[in-house]
Amino acid sequence: MSEMVKNIFTIIAAGLVLLAGVFILRFVVRLAWKFVRTALIILSVMIIAGYFFGIFDISFQEIGIKGLLP
Fold first, then answer.
1. Distance between CA atoms of residues 53 and 47, nearest Å
2. CB 69 within 8 A of CB 60
3. Which of 64, 46, 67 minimizes the C-alpha distance to 56?
């Protein structure tokens, strides 16, 4: 096989790897975002439940939010 044909095959292979990499990266980012979103929802629920059950003491008047609590 000539050197020119090898170079063409190498360029085609590199293009296919780059194209596949884009789709693989999109899949990985979507999968990671699902885990991050789930973790944020669980954290939010834990903070809200902790506040209502008295585990966390959040004082709105100390941080300057007036009108929320008497």
1. 10
2. yes
3. 46
Residues in the chain: 70
Contact 66, 59 (CB under 8 A): no
Name the amino acid, one letter, at 7: N
pLDDT in tens, 24-65: 999 999 999 999 999 999 999 998 888 888 887 776 665 555
CA–CA separation, 7 and 12 (whole Å): 9
Phi, psi of 32 (to 5 degrees): -65, -40
In this prediction the pTM is 0.56
